[in-house]
């Protein structure tokens, strides 16, 4: 492929780390990175789509937007005028998100890591667990419910060793602390479960940890960081006192994760596993837009470089197919 390749990076205005790292890796490969912060649309981002009998196009700042590949990191809600009422802001954010998703669909003829609809479907935590189990990965016994009585039975069946967590963040925040951490369910919590009728939760048997793993998965490559299980707490995002260490995945685990990511349609994702004291690898979840910069910084894992390579490889392959 000749000429400068251009890759669109979809991010948000509060993200200074991963997006810049990928942009830098692309620049070192002679490609141009065009960053769009999703929360700037529509207030500060002049993006529009034009469709007619003879032409379809995406226009940015009155110029046709032409790119060779798209990297979708995260789409955040629109930052709208603070003077709007809560109801008007909610409606505006909903319509802005729908419009942005529609506009980005006009880039369907170039490769994505990963397409919006693929990401949304893959983020289904129940589906992830079902597929992981079917592919031979160990998973914790899991209950997803809004029924207090079911939680009490589950708690008793697992001798009180149960964690509770949400499926989505409560807030959009850069530090990953989007509200309620994963936590151990206490016996006194069993009498205060009426709120589940307003907010169902996931309950899982607590898995003892020798190591907790965060895997930055990039187009078949696993870049792995590990935390000492005794020092990372129930939710390492909030409680960890351990430092990240390198870790090699056993080949059978890598193979099953590759099959899972293929079934989910994902080329990128942050995968969370626990290694038990007996050496068993237990799958927890995949976050399509999960954090990985700490692994790149602390362990020197070339995650942004791998993403840039994958994007340009897909762009070149797509260009070659169009020439045939």
TrEMBL record:
Entry superkingdom: Bacteria
InterPro entries for the chain: ATP-grasp (IPR011761), MvdD-like_ATPgrasp (IPR048936)
Alphabetized UniProt keyword annotations: ATP-binding, Nucleotide-binding
Residues of the ATP-grasp domain: 129-312
Pfam hit, one: ATPgraspMvdD
Residue ranges crossing the lipid bilayer per the database entry: none
Leader sequence segment: none
Name of the featured protein: MvdC family ATP-grasp ribosomal peptide maturase
């Amino acid at each position: 492929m000749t000429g400068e390749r251009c890759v669109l990076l979809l991010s948000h205005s509060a993200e200074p780390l991963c997006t810049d790292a990928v942009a830098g890796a692309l620049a070192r490969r002679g490609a141009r990175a065009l960053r769009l912060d999703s929360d700037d649309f529509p207030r500060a981002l002049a993006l529009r789509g034009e469709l007619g009998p003879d032409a379809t196009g995406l226009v940015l700042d009155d110029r046709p937007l032409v790119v060779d590949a798209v990297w979708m990191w995260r789409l955040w809600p629109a930052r709208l005028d603070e003077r709007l009422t809560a109801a008007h802001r909610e409606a505006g954010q909903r319509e802005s998100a729908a419009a942005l998703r529609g506009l980005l669909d006009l880039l369907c003829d170039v490769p994505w890591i990963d397409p919006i609809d693929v990401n949304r479907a893959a983020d289904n935590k129940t589906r992830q667990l079902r597929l992981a189990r079917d592919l031979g990965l160990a998973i914790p016994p899991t209950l997803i419910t809004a029924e207090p009585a079911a939680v009490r039975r589950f708690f008793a069946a697992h001798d009180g060793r149960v964690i509770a967590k949400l499926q989505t963040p409560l807030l959009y925040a850069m530090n990953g602390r989007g509200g309620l951490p994963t936590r151990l369910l206490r016996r006194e919590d069993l009498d205060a479960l009426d709120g589940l009728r307003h907010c169902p939760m996931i309950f899982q048997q607590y898995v003892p940890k020798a190591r907790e793993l965060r895997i930055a998965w990039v187009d078949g490559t696993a870049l792995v960081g590990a935390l000492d299980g005794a020092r990372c707490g129930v939710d390492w995002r909030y409680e960890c006192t351990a430092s990240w260490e390198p870790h090699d995945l056993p080949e059978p685990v890598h193979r099953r994760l590759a099959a899972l990511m293929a079934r989910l349609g994902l080329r990128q994702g942050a995968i969370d596993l626990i290694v038990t004291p007996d050496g068993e690898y237990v799958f927890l979840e995949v976050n399509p837009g999960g954090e990985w910069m700490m692994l790149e910084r602390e362990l020197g894992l070339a995650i942004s470089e791998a993403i840039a390579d994958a994007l340009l490889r897909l762009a070149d392959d797509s260009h070659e197919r169009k020439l045939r």
